[in-house]
Amino acid sequence: DKHDESPTITQLDAKTVDRIAAGEVVERPASVVKELVENSLDAGASRITVAVQNGGKNGIRVRDDGRGIPEAELSIAVKPHTTSKIRKLADLESGVGTLGFRGEALSTIASVSRLTLRSKPQDAVAGAEVHVEGGDIGETRPAGCPTGTTVVVDDLFYNTPARKKFLKKDATEFDHINTVVTQYALANPDVAVSLEHNNRERFATDGSGNLQSAILSIYGREVAESMLSIDVKPDVDGITRIHGMVSNPETNRSTREYLATFVNSRYVTASILRDAVISGYGGQLSSDRYPFAVLFVTVPPDRVDVNVHPRKLDVRFDAEEAVTTAIETAVETALVDAGLIRSTAPRG
Ligand code: ADP
Ligand code: MG
After folding, report:
1. In this predicted structure, what is the pLDDT of residue 96?
2. Residue among 222, 202, 224 at smallest CA distance from 212
3. Is the dihedral of CA 134, 136, 138, 143 positive or negative?
4. What whole-number distance in Å separates Cα of residue 182 and Cα of residue 188?
5. Cross-strand bridge partners of residue 260
6. Per-residue b or e along 24-50, where b marks 16 or more CB atoms closer than 10 Å to that residue's CB
7. Rounded to the nearest 10 degrees, what angle do helices 170-187 and 211-219 cross at?
8. Which of 53, 139, 253, 262 could bridge 59 with an S-S bond, Cβ 3.0-4.6 Å?
9. What angle do CA 303, 309, 313 make, to 5 degrees?
10. What pTM did the predictor assign?
């Protein structure tokens, strides 16, 4: 009888715990890219270059010109639950101004890959690097590098073969990476973001701060020229501002992935927001066609719950209906004013 030999309860060693936890944060190469790009943005970078090989399976490199990490802190940054962004629980409750704060990303990525963290703060005379292999942290060594940080992640999931087996083909994994980098590039037109796959550049934004020129770099001229600006401050039900760009109804695609919505600068895929944008077109789109949109919704932080989970792209508003109505109206007004659709409801 199998109940005769009851297994003894023992505490898992830290490495096993990390590797299990890694599954929560790092699902595929695109999740690594997301975490690294968020770190670069949190570091105040004005330029971020992302280069991946084979859909990110055999190499991910993210380089920024941000504030850098002091040599003495490199080996701390790759340990579990180490962060410079919050100090205590109260900091969380008063609101976090950074994209990250859990202090999990670098350590979890490093526990399932071979990772090199190389950095030089502005005021340091030289750079340094640390190499981590499957969670084993090596010596910190001097390294020549410009101001900023470079993270190289090789052989993702080399020590978790079951997870590695579930990766899709290179093109599919790259699509996910492309989606992630595109979101951050659109959300941060003041940062020059570039993406390269197998040594071929896919796009590079200029960092000028102009959203239309970021759209031009990413989606091309035809799309960029079809975009209309939106900028309204409804000031009702705590909606501070809705701004961004939407395409004319003729410039559309068969998937919703070009409909990018952001709440307080965070990308969210919530269908209520996308549906609100679509309703703004007032039936001018065929049912299986979707516009291009890059729309930022700003609400006071205490009236919205975004990103409760590291991978969650959903959002909850206090005043959901007011938000969707405001989006719909803003989109409709932009299209009506441009003479592209007729008003569906009497206004004014
Ligand atoms: P978190 O972002 O939640 O703080 P991470 O594991 O992603 O946790 O990073 C740990 C710490 O390493 C960060 O708090 C930050 O101090 C430092 N760090 C990571 N990436 C960068 C970067 N690109 N530039 C500057 N500092 C960085
Ligand atoms: Mg982080």
Report:
1. 66
2. 224
3. positive
4. 10
5. 294
6. ebbbbbbbbbbbbbbbbbbbebebbbb
7. 170
8. 53
9. 70
10. 0.90
- Of 13-22, 50-59, 60-69, 76-85, which gets the smallest average pLDDT? 13-22
Q: Which two tokens stand for residue 316?
A: 């909850």
Per residue in 207-231, is it b (16+ CB within 10 Å) or e — as a string?
Answer: beeebbebbbbbbeeebbebbbebe
Gap between the Cα atoms of 17 and 162, Å rounded: 17
- 291-310 confidence digits (pLDDT tens): 999 999 998 877 777 655 55
Ligand 1: nearest atom to the Cα of 106: 6
Angle formed at CA 306 by CA 319 and CA 92, multiple of 5 degrees: 115
Ligand 1: lining residues by beta carbon, under 6 Å = 35, 39-40, 43, 64, 66-69, 77, 82-85, 100-107, 149
79 in Cβ contact with 111 (< 8 Å): no
Pick from 24, 25, 26, 39 the residue to mutate for probing ligand 1's pocket: most ligand atoms within 8 Å of its CB.
39
Structure confidence by residue, pLDDT tens digits, 309-340: 555 567 777 788 888 999 999 999 999 999 88
The bound ligand whose nearest atom lies closest to the alpha carbon of 34 is 2
| DSSP classification of residue 167 | -
Residue 118, strand partner residues:
129, 150
Q: Under DSSP, is residue 2 helix (H, G, I), strand (E, B) or coil?
A: coil
Give this complex's ipTM: 0.98
Mutate to test the pocket of ligand 1, among 34, 35, 42, 50 (most ligand atoms within 8 A of CB): 42
